[in-house]
Amino acid sequence: MMLHIPGVLSREEVATMRAEIDAADWIDGRATVGTQGALVKRNRQLPEDSPVATAQGDIVLRALRANATFFRAALPAAYMPPLFNRYAKANEESYGLHVDGSLRGVPGSPKWLRTDISSTLFLSEPDAYDGGELVVVDTYGEHRVKLPAGDMILYPATSLHRVEPVTRGERVCSFFWTQSLIRDDAQRTILFELDQAIDSLRQRLGESAETVSLASQYHNLLRMWSEP
Ligand code: NI
Question: I want to staple 128 with a disulfide (CB 3.0 to 4.6 A). Which of 124, 179, 188, 198 is the partner?
């Protein structure tokens, strides 16, 4: 499932975040990829251990904890700390077709996080740059994504994806991975759609014997499939 979540951050929150991260020191984005990614990745990132990245990443996670749509879609078990990247016209920075690594070491811990869901939070307005679309490839074809600043796209981390070359201006984003309570994207999609349908029925018709029954089926599926 690919899901566009609007307004994760307000315009003002994006502007404050941009002022903080734009003033920080950026490094070659190849610092966080394996050998396959290094061949196709041409961008810059904030260092993973940079205090600015840590502080701003916490703001992103705080906003997500308050976002009911993100919670229902991702059913998060754990997050990697958000990272920040930028692609500029100089050198037409881009990130060729790749898949994100399936496991990532949790910083400061011997634990691993399974990357079930990839998320990109846009921190540049679409008219600030040309190119720079996130292209996600699945069995239905290619999906091109370019969202207003403050909006997020969530997609299965199993997908091949790329970022098109930036040919004008600069594209700044935050991105991170979530391990979900529900490992399988198809099961996660069923739960999300069932949850949305129950919610919509409740709003239209109020609580009823049917919505109680459907909610119990939702929770029974969640109990059957979740891996807390
Ligand atoms: Ni990627």
Answer: 124
The CATH topology of domain 185-225 is DNA Excision Repair, Uvrb; Chain A (4.10.860)
Ligand 1 centroid–CA 41 distance in Å is 9
Domain 3-180: which CATH class? mainly beta
pLDDT one-digit tens code per residue, 165-180 = 999 999 999 999 999 9
How many angstroms does the Cα of residue 162 sit away from the middle of ligand 1? 7
Query: What would the pLDDT profile of 197-206 be if each residue is shown by its tens digit?
Result: 999 999 999 9
- Strands (E) located in 29-165: 41-42, 44-45, 76-79, 83-88, 94-98, 103-105, 112-114, 117-122, 129-131, 134-138, 141-145, 152-156, 160-163
Domain spans of the chain?
Answer: 3-180, 185-225
Rounded to the nearest angstrom, the distance between the alpha carbon of 164 and the centre of ligand 1 is 12
Give 94 Cα–ligand 1 centroid separation in angstroms: 11
Predicted TM-score (pTM) of the model is 0.94
Give residue 91's pLDDT.
77
